[in-house]
Amino acid sequence: MIDRRYRVLVLVAAYSGLRIGELAGLRRRRVDLLRGTVEVAEIVTEVEGVLRFGPPKTRAGRRTVGLPRAVVDELAAHLARAEPDAFVFTAPQGGPLRIVAFRARVWRPATRKADLGGLRIHDLRHTAVALWIAAGAGPKEVAARAGHTSVSFTLDRYGHLYPEADTALRDRLDALYVAGGQAGPGLVIELPRDRSRPQRGPATG
After folding, report:
1. Per the domain annotation, does 58 fall within a domain?
2. Residue 133's closest CA among 159, 111, 96, 114?
3. What is the model's pTM?
4. Has residue 45 been placed in a domain?
5. Closest CA to 61 of 137, 138, 125
6. Domain at 87, CATH number
């Protein structure tokens, strides 16, 4: 449904979790096709029609995110002739991607055509996080990939996605418990003592 030139943008957004400003600022030299990663080092913001380029707003925002091999293959084809300093995703006539124009002229018509009116570009970031959690990523890993400044923010925003992961963990613990019961008597292993603490002598009256 979307213009073919932006199919890869949708795939990268849905699996990397990059914000639209991070996607617009992504350059060819920040993409490592061999390792299958993209480095977030520059973002684009648009204020009253003026594009501004700069580093991510937070330290956590500067990060490297891995992509599935299928998405990397699509990205490789998309970048076949790109120069190192070229933007990965550009405006239809070339040059930096103008976020406001992209939303109005490309994104909204495509979502309406697909009966997904109201879907935001930012929703692809939520899709990515949901996919990571479904694949087994813990809160710390999600926070690092998404560029969140804290794990608590990740849990506040996406904690509702973790009950299924918790259920799967409990199922695995149940399986271990049952397996342990079926194994019969086992060895008792003494836990190592913390030798940094002084040992108490016998009590004296």
Report:
1. yes
2. 159
3. 0.78
4. yes
5. 125
6. 1.10.443.10
How many structural domains is the chain composed of?
Answer: 1
Instruction: Give yes or no for a contact between 22 and 56, defined as CB atoms under 8 angstroms apart.
Output: yes
Neighbours of 158 (CB within 10 A): 19
Q: Tell me, yes or no, whether 144 lies in a domain.
A: no
Region for residue 17 given its phi and psi (left: phi exceeds 0; alpha: psi -120 to 50; beta: otherwise):
left
Contact 97, 23 (CB under 8 A): yes
- Only one residue has tokens 């890993």, namely 141
Q: Contact at 8 Å (CB) between 120 and 103?
A: no
Distance CA 165, CA 168 (A): 5
Question: pLDDT (tens digit, 9 = 90+) per residue, 148-182?
Answer: 999 999 988 898 888 766 677 788 888 888 887 76
Structural tokens at position 161:
């996605």
| Domain span including residue 61 | 4-119
Q: Is 31 part of a structural domain of the chain?
A: yes
